[in-house]
Design a protein that fits this description.
Length: about 220
């Protein structure tokens, strides 16, 4: 039985992924913030050291606090980069030695459509998610010889609390109408894609960032 570590599993996409993994027979560790603080690299290493080896890592946790260039603070920049990028890199550093030793691993990072695109107020978020795309490529190159495959998913507009937090109902209706698919994604749809990349069925895909955006990036 495979063992997975997933962050951000308390709501939205992360919760959907956790449920899907458990339904399909994967043992899932989904630490709370008290158990593993993503703002502390020491906390991340301590948790993984105590928990043991993992076959799967899904870096789903992240924050998106809106601020324009003029509104940015050092604290917000540091918090966003740490939560969205450095924590993902640190988790890979923590779990990959065990994966390399066993000759198997699947890592799925979470980027966003805002890694290649952006809009007002997303500068810190876009920078962090562009970093995740680069992290995915670089980690894939280093870990591929050990049968550790590293990919990222880049969701578009998904029906989650975070999306509702940053867009009014009127904006969400306009967004849905602007997409070729004419609706927002459901968390379970993103979960299915992440599951495939994290599963044994994925045997040759690595270093890729998969845009799951209902056609947003096509227009």
């Amino acid at each position: 039985m495979r063992k997975a570590l997933i962050t951000g599993a308390s709501r939205g996409i992360g919760r959907a992924i956790r449920r899907l993994l458990e339904e399909r027979g994967v043992t899932v560790a989904a630490p709370t913030r008290r158990e593993m603080d993503l703002l502390s690299n020491a906390s991340i290493f301590a948790y993984v050291d105590a928990a043991g080896d993992f076959d799967i890592l899904i870096n789903c946790a992240g924050i998106n606090e809106l601020a324009t260039i003029d509104q940015l603070t050092d604290a917000l920049v540091e918090k966003t980069i740490q939560s969205n990028l450095v924590a993902q890199m640190t988790l890979i550093r923590a779990v990959s030695p065990g994966m390399k030793r066993r000759g198997y691993g699947r890592i799925v990072n979470f980027a966003s459509i805002w890694c290649d695109f952006s809009k007002v107020g997303r500068i810190a978020y876009s920078v962090s998610k562009a970093g995740v795309k680069g992290l995915t490529t670089a980690a894939a190159v280093e870990l591929a010889p050990h049968n550790v495959l590293v990919n990222a998913v880049a969701p578009g507009f998904v029906n989650t609390e975070m999306t509702a937090q940053n867009n009014s109902p009127e904006q969400l209706r306009a967004i849905a109408e602007s997409l070729p698919i004419r609706r927002l994604a459901e968390p379970e749809e993103i979960a299915e894609c992440a599951y495939f990349l994290a599963s044994e069925k994925n045997t040759f895909i690595t270093g890729q960032t998969l845009f799951i955006d209902g056609g947003f990036s096509c227009i």
